Amino acid sequence: GHLDPGSHRKVLMKTGLILLIVGHLSFITGALVHGTVLRFVVPARDATSLHYGVTNSASVIAALLTISCGISALLLSRYLGPAAFKWALLALSAGSSLSCLCCLLGLLVAVGLTLGNQGRVLLAPCSIGSIALAPVSRECPFDPTRVYSSTLSLWAISLLLEAVAIFFSIRCLLLTLELLRL
């Protein structure tokens, strides 16, 4: 059946709020991964660390798009009138869905690479000698025993958030299409 404007408003508002929250969580997760691990790893400049860097930057951009999409959905739920809002939300939700999908795939590859090389690239900033001697030494900017598991856990959280963002961005997209009666 066709939704009346009132229920459209409610769904848009809920979707907007969820996107807003998911976007922020995604942003924080990306920032944590970067701050704790990747800023030491990315300067290594091999293919894997480059992939980590690109994926992480992409997830920050995707998070910003998701947040923008959420804000637009909330705005549109307040003011259902202007067509410009609907088109903006259409573009943002499409962009958000696609960028989150790219991140999801990028993260899967990152996790695959990391599991494949047993976190060697993540541990590259630590000289091999220092790992044997002490868990944390001057040569190692972080605790090497935890970096592997904590990076993978953060990526797992990111994957979950990207999946939720994709789901709700697509829902937003479909709602907007219905509002535009395309």
UniProtKB/TrEMBL annotation:
GO cellular component: membrane
One Pfam match: BCLP
InterPro entries for this protein: Beta-casein-like
Ranges annotated as spanning the membrane: 17-37, 57-76, 88-113, 152-177
Localization, UniProt: Membrane
Leader sequence segment: none
Keyword terms of this UniProt record: Membrane, Transmembrane, Transmembrane helix
Membrane protein topology class: Multi-pass membrane protein
Recorded family membership: Belongs to the TMEM54 family.
Protein name, per record: TMM54 protein
